[in-house]
Each structure stands twice: as structure tokens, then as C-alpha cells.
Amino acid sequence: MLILQLLQWGPQHGYGITQMIRARSSEALQVETGSLYPALHRLEREGWLKSEWGQTESNQRAKFYRLTAAGRQQLLRERDRWAQLVDAIAGVMSPEPGGGTL
Fold first, then answer.
1. In 10 A of CB 17, how many CB atoms?
2. Residue ranges of the domains in the chain?
3. Domain 2-84 - what CATH class?
4. Residue 61 pairs with which residues in a beta bridge?
5. What kind and span of H or E run contains 94?
6. How far apart are CA 39 and CA 17, in angstroms?
7. pLDDT value at position 98?
8. What is the mean pLDDT of residues 41-51?
9. H or E stretch at 68
């Protein structure tokens, strides 16, 4: 979901994705390349991403990933699932009405 979310703003190479995740999470999330690239390849196999070779800001050759129309639809589904999960966890974490304890 995080990769799809970040790529909705435009194409990005793998290192750029890791940096964006790190920066937008205030350094709380650190994605290792050993996790990122298999995820990118899986998302591409699913048809949610497309990739092409290009040049980075520092003139290095890199594969850039972009969101497809199917990826945008998947992002909407993932956001809905995330909202349901947050609501479910909030329901469990909320104090019981009437001040009861476990």
C-alpha cells in the first residue's frame, strides 16, 4: 500500500521510494532493498506498476516505477482495507464504556 501511495505522485526509482518512505514516516519506517525490490517486482507482475529505465537526478541509470490504472484501483481497495483495520484496532483499544477493565 505504501509503495502504491507514493507512486501516485509520479514515477520513482527504488532508492527514491525508500527515501520517501523514510522521510514521510519521520524515520520510523526503514525499508531495506531486500524487501523493496521483491515487492516492486510482485506489484509489477500484478499489473499495478510499470517500469522503465531512466536517469536519476545524479545521472545514474535506474529503473523507474509508475502506477498503472489497475494500480490506482488497487490503492483505493488497500486504503479501504486500511481504514477498516484502523477502525477495528481502535475499537479494541478503546476503553470499555462504563470504565470496565480486563
1. 20
2. 2-84
3. mainly alpha
4. 55
5. none
6. 12
7. 55
8. 98
9. none
Q: What is the 3-state secondary structure (H, E, C) of 5-45?
A: HHHCCCCEEHHHHHHHHHHHCCCCCCCCHHHHHHHHHHHHH
pLDDT at 33: 87
Interatomic CA distance for residues 54 and 28, integer angstroms: 29
pLDDT tops 80 at residue 99: no
Cell numbers that stand for 88 in this block: 477495528
pLDDT higher at 98 or 55: 55
Contacts of 71 (CB under 8 A, 6+ apart): 4, 7, 43, 47, 48, 49
> Could you tell me if residue 98 is left (phi over 0), alpha (psi between -120 and 50 degrees) or otherwise beta?
left
Question: How many Å apart are CA 64 and CA 12, to the nearest integer?
Answer: 5
Joined grid coordinates for residue 12? 520513482
Q: pTM of the predicted model, to two decimals?
A: 0.83
Give CA–CA dist 45/97, Å, rounded: 47
